[in-house]
Specification:
The protein is α+β, with helices and mostly antiparallel strands. It has 4 helices and 8 strands.
């Protein structure tokens, strides 16, 4: 029985230079898609996340003490939200920094059998460092690390893991390797 495959473009709202193209089975569960997104974008899965459908319904990991918990992402498949090209799903990572990703369906194809792994197609831009303060904090960090006169120049350089950050650096081979470890 043929399997539908979704070609997706994941973009980071507010930072046009960071995007990824991947393929996943249409039947991938949102919980597995979360793992794929973390690996594809270069996040470290240190924070909460949530998917939001066009109608405002929220999906994530429900916590027992939440006042308004999201629906359980393990119980829902991507094909419930995307069906035709240009359909979109929103993914928020880190409610403090509020990294908003737009998952856009670009193409639907049929394969002879369902793949068990996501596939990296293309991408650009280095994912912002965790906990840098969202889009405004990211741009302030970039300004500070490139200006030795900036009052926070030394603080940011000391804070960054390698003492530097290149927003254009992106390693597609590493992304491919990491994606191979995730079953969808």
């Amino acid at each position: 029985m043929p399997a539908r495959i979704f070609f997706l473009r994941i973009s980071l709202r507010g930072i046009d230079s960071v995007w990824r193209g991947i393929t996943v089975p249409a039947t991938v569960r949102l919980s597995a898609l979360h793992q794929v997104l973390q690996a594809t974008m270069g996040w470290h899965d240190c924070h909460l996340h949530e998917f939001t459908a066009r109608n405002g319904e929220r999906f994530g990991v429900p916590e027992h003490d939440d006042y308004d918990p999201p629906q359980d992402e393990k119980l829902h498949k991507l094909e419930e939200f995307l069906g035709k090209p240009r359909d979109k799903l929103r993914y928020i990572y880190d409610f403090g920094d509020s990294w908003e990703h737009v998952i856009e369906l670009k193409l639907v194809a049929e394969y002879p059998k369902r793949p068990t792994r996501a596939e990296f197609i293309d991408g650009a831009g280095n994912c912002p460092p965790e906990d840098c303060g969202g889009v405004p904090g990211y741009y302030e960090m970039l300004k500070a690390i490139h200006d030795p006169q900036h009052p926070e120049h030394r603080q940011f350089l000391d804070w960054l893991p390698n003492g530097t950050f290149d927003p254009d650096e992106f390693d597609p081979k590493l992304t491919e390797i990491v994606l191979r470890s995730i079953r969808v």
